Amino acid sequence: MALLVLIGLQTPLRAQPAPGSNVAVSLLPGASEAPAGASIPVAIVMKPKPGWHGYWKNPGDAGAEATIAWDLPKGVTVGALRYPVPERLIVAGIMNYVYEHEHALLTELTVAADVAPGTRLPLGAKLDFLACTDKICVPESAQVSMDIVAGAAGRPPVKDPRFDAFEAAMPKPLGVDGRFVVENGRARIGIPLPATLAVADPYFFPLDYGSLDHSAVQTVSRAGDLLIVETKAGPNAAGLATIAGLLTIGKGQGLLLTARPGMVPAAGEPIGATGGQKAGGPGVIVAALAGAILGGLLLNIMPCVFPILSLKALSLAKAGADEGGARREALAYTAGVVLVCLALGGILLGLRAGGAAVGWAFQLQDPRVILVLLLLVTGIGLNLAGLFELPAIGGGSRLAGRSGAQGAFWTGALAAFVATPCTGPFMGAALGAALVLPTAAALAIFAGLGLGLALPFLLLGLVPALRRRLPKPGAWMNRLRRILSIPMFLTALGLAWILGRQAGVDAMALGLGAALLLALGLWWVGVRQGRPRAWLPLAPALAAALAAMLIVPLEAPAGAKAQPVLQGEMFSDEKLAALRSQGRPVFLYFTADWCITCKVNEKGVLARSEVAKSFTSRNVAVLAGDWTRGDAAIGRFLAEHGRSGVPLYLYYAPGQEAKILPQILTVGDLTGLGT
Fold first, then answer.
1. Domain positions in the chain
2. CA–CA distance, 375 with 416 (Å, rounded to integer)
3. Which residues of 4-24 are buried (b: 16+ CB within 10 A; e: fewer)?
4. How far apart are alpha carbons 143 and 17 in whole angstroms?
5. Are the beta carbons of 420 and 316 closer than 8 angstroms?
6. Architecture of domain 13-169
7. Homologous superfamily of 569-671
8. 15: Cα within 13 Å, side-chain hemisphere
9. What cellular component terms from Gene Ontology apply here (predicted)?
10. 406: exposed, middle or buried (Cβ count in 10 Å: 0-12, 13-18, 19+)
11. 173-270 adopts what CATH topology?
12. 83 pLDDT tier (thresholds 50, 70, 90)
């Protein structure tokens, strides 16, 4: 009987809990089918008995990390284990990083592309781990197995809804590096986190044993947009090139980050161990959402939005003619704006989760995107000038009556894509907070930005009293169309200049040549308007545009970096640190050639003689950062100050941390610095 029991305990179970005496273990697939050439999540679910616990990847001063040995069929691979946010447990003065409740370790299972659909794939795993109470520890093993089936390539798997909770328990990557310094046996870590994001019970879990003293008390403080964790250094801290770890910002919420050697200020305003608002709580989310909506609303009057006002003006004029059509177009326009903002926000969050130091308007750092915008704006300008008729914009035709909402949707989509390169007032802190909030809350903030941008048009479409104040449609619309083609052509000219700045004069010539071919094609379309297959002449122009996109240079030419408007130097972390160590006041600003707000400030305020005289008299050093083509160091620096885009203006008084200046500058803002 004893032999039979032992044999039974050694038999693998199919996706059932392993019979560990103190921690039940089971292997759970994220889907019953795994498409060939794709991945599905897999969870190792661990459920300790009451009073027992397991350990995090770094167990702390005691304990052991779980190890796993996989038994996989040919064509199947698995990734590294991901751990949820741990808990702290102090036993007899020894710090342990543990899990006292049910939790799941996650990994990704990938099926090779050459595995035939329908193939049964048996998976096995042996997990060795340590189960402990506050008095004893027991080494345990669990042998678990499960079966999945290879699915057809390209067919999305049906996910297990339980994995939503597993993913929610995982820490999010911060996406930017922190800084650390080790002095006199103490380690000080500076973690970029927007000041608007309050945290509850913050604690830094080091991933590497020996980097920090686990049992030592951690003090946490704030210095603007920098969270500072100070504690006793570990025995290996002095020789480390990085300190990786997990910062908890609320119950079950954490951020993964890596800190590199650099200057970290002394402790700032202390944060209580139990005080503060829950990170990602309703108050923080509501404040960030309100800032995003207000910032989007103000974008309608900012210079970077002016080129697309022509499209709005025509839509508003049409809305006054038909109440039902006005509502449909207003809702369609809003949908186009919000969906594009959500799409850009989602891509931004995904890129940052992958470790890329990108920010808002990241798409404009690619010359190919600038080329597409150049051709699109040229085509719109030619349409407004009357060279040809685009049914989605032109009025009076039967087709336009049916597709008005469709035209409004794409007008809104274009408005959002072109109108969001620069962050305006209230947007900077809101978008900075969105990058560290939970995904759902972050996307809500990006949607709020789109709602604010679309709000004026939405109100006019839904409120008849406002629409009645619009002028009635008439011949003036045609004149207005032609007049408003001028800013579109000026925008095209500006985009050609940006293309030259990003990729050189050859790219500018290529873009202008593609625009000329497009104009000739559209002129031919206009001549043939109303005939069958009138759009055929446009095919060669579109082919030429595609070819231009494929061959446009992607490397910035030498000397393409913007030069500081004031007498100064280009930004680097080392240069900033050197100037501050000399005790000099520093004015630091970040710009991009595609940021119209940046250029307006540079031409209208930074170029003023009184600003230059004020800076010279007070020996203010000027540093400029050019983000036109994207720069990882600048991206990280922006994120450290709670921003995800340009412009950003900072002033460092001697011995003090940065003061963030308004995004729309005045001469008084700059001449009054340091007084």
1. 13-169, 173-270, 282-551, 569-671
2. 17
3. eeeeeeeebbeeebbebebbb
4. 9
5. no
6. Sandwich (2.60)
7. Glutaredoxin (3.40.30.10)
8. 11
9. plasma membrane
10. middle
11. Immunoglobulin-like (2.60.40)
12. very high
